[in-house]
């Protein structure tokens, strides 16, 4: 499965990365090389195999539904590029 | 009289206990080594005060006759992938420049609780993506090793834990934390002639460890030798309720139970790890390793791990897929870099921030990950890779029917020169060929230095064990260490 520049731009858009035209050009052969290489996995007969969901058999623990954290608003905002009135401030969402 | 800076964890601990020197002297010695090692570019942030404060606490506790922690008096380097409260943490990326965590990662908290002090935050491949420490936004780490051909080429210390490997081998820190996703502790340990251990998946908590690939990432120690790694891993590991993948099991007394007598143990030699064009020096070292383990009483058997060749391609689907999800949090909203072009709306802010903040390898992997998870391709790539991953894990399970441990080289070459492999991402990925399979299966594995190549550069041997059987891995590593007689150190060029 070979990808072209248009596909690279679409992937970049899905990834929310504003790549330049030059970067898109560079990514085409690089991504194609990597994808061509990983394609060999198609050789493997996986018809009777389940995908791995847990690396080491483990149970997903549940905990009691009680509040054990919080009231640390200033810490949470400490690294914010712009914080305002106790919120993270972002540019308006354009429709 | 050994210089303080040549001592490892065990040597420092006993020296302090015996009154040979104080913890403060140790911290001052290493702080000075850190200051003098700037040409290596191993540290992103230096924290001499932290090391001194921890040392003073140890000296005070010792004077008061209190029991000292496992790492008391030992100043360490901290890979800059662990969130350290109040100390800038960047994952070597521009997108986190200036980020100061408001909390401590569990692994660093455990180490400080055990008495360790921090010399500083260590440089690494950006977001742990790389095998040569050439993808950091803050410059390459230069290995303390040089080839013996008289040239002055700068060499890679390996990656992604390049800073960690450089400082331990250069005797700038007695030990350092690393993380291993596809080999990032083991390969740099092999390249720099030190010992590095990746535990069973889930042994070390990932809480506060900046995520690359959540089903693969594991923290681990990088130190002078097997005993030091055992001590440090005991301090790092343990159940953490804040990590849903954390193993709820007690931490074994790995150091106390170290035993290099391997009578009754069977060591498997995986035939698929004998790759085409394997350098003769590495093959010879592997043979030497076999003889060493036999000498320790082990029985050697040939085993087959038939899906080995699919491990790297499976990894380079699964890891980027997980990374594309984990790195989606870097959007300029809550922390880190924000790039807001004039008149930009929210979506433009995301895209501009991530374009400016991520390096090329990070972008490459996010895009591969996004592609293999996208509609229409998910089953062909991601699901297929997850199924192959099951087969790879089953290969190991079947091998354990005939052996207890596996012996293999750690890396397919000695350290290469900086810049030598940057043109071809794929060539760089092949560095991980021996380490990735055990990562995919979540198995404990370590690299021990075992010899030098023709240019005087270190080569390592890798031991892989059954899940939760770190002890047997440590023991086999010790058997090799005792017989390999590896005493080589880099000659200080800085």
Task: Describe what this molecule looks like in 3D.
The complex is a heterodimer of chains A (95) and B (494). Chain A has 95 residues and is mainly alpha-helical. Chain A has a domain at 5-43. Helices cover 35% and strands 4% of the residues of chain A. Chain A contains 3 helices and 2 strands; from the N terminus they run αααββ. Chain A is flat. The model of chain A has no long low-confidence stretch (mean pLDDT 92). Chain B is an alpha/beta fold and 494 residues long. Chain B has a domain at 4-261 and 410-484: Alpha-Beta Complex (Amidase signature (AS) enzymes). Helix content of chain B is 36%, strand content 13%. In chain B, helix 2 (23-36) runs antiparallel to helix 3, helix 5 (162-169) runs parallel beside helix 6 (186-192) and helix 9 (311-326) packs across helix 11. The radius of gyration of chain B is 21 Å and the shape is globular. The model of chain B has no long low-confidence stretch (mean pLDDT 96). Classes of the chains: A mainly alpha (95), B alpha/beta (494). At the A-B interface, helix 1 and helix 2 of A face helix 9, helix 10, helix 11, helix 12 and helix 13 of B.
